[in-house]
Predict the structure.
Amino acid sequence: MANSSTSNPILCASFNQDNSCFAIGTRDGFRLFDANTGRLLYERAVGAFIIVEMLFSSDFLAIVGAGEQPSLSPRRLCLFNTTTGMALRELNFLTSIVSVHLNRKRLIVVLQENTYIYDINSLAILDTIDTVPNFKGLSAFSPSLDGCFLALPANATKGSVLVYNVMDLQSHCEIDAHNSPLSALALSSNGMYIATASEQGTIIRVHLIAEATKQSYSFRRGTYPSTIFSLSFGPATELPDILAATSSSGSLHVFSLGLAINQRSRRSNSFLGSFLPHSVSDSLDPAHHRILHNAVPAGIRSYAVIRKVEKVADRSPSGASVCRATISLITYNGYFLEYILNINQHGECSWNLEREFNLLTLLP
């Protein structure tokens, strides 16, 4: 995720495909961290970078410069080896690169009006997608080889999404998610869900990819407009699916998808539920929405991922299990924060700040 503001020291931030590591790009270079320990794994101070993407925990990186030095053009993608400190290959384009995604089979390069799909091993171009103007680099990718999808804006004036099957090299569907243009996209790691938010920022919608044009779940973030900075699904497990969102208000929002789906099933069998549109009734029910106010300073761009969701034993006498989510945030003013969200069997929740450190001053 790149930073559109020039006032913050961090220009981009990204987690790897299993959220075990993360990278930041700054005006001085880029840094790689272990997400579990916070340890600085690698740094290189050679100039400003606006894209730094890892391939799992390997020594392979895809990096793009900010253009502040002639050798770091935003139109050049460098495939970089951290072990040798050398470029493996460089790809040059006619316009600026605004987003990059990769897994063990595919490399996706998103330009302002085109997207290129490569075989990551041979770097052969497999397909080219013409897109609407996408200067913010809005895109999402599910790295699973079994559900490998790419999501891109499909319309410049309203919130339509193109979902493209990266392995089969064909369009999967187009979703009309919002009336106003998109501001955020996310795909679950297994390619099951897609989440969208518009520039209005009050409603977040989630579609099942398999039935993307038939049904959606709507969650109300708030009443007043706010810019959605990031959306993130929990890792694909057998536990209830959850979605996290950060916004310009400084709040961290967590939505329980499993609860919403169960509630919808109950509504559809009720008298009132048969008359209410699903998207309306879901958005009016706050039972599956948890909010941590002032998680980060208001107005500071932030990027959150749900790194872990697990069941743990409750400390109460009942010994019932508690759903625990580990949510990591990177703020573009230079900090890493990690919150623990506990939700008990009664739906009651508690938040704890587990870790916090400065990403710019940490030494190896």
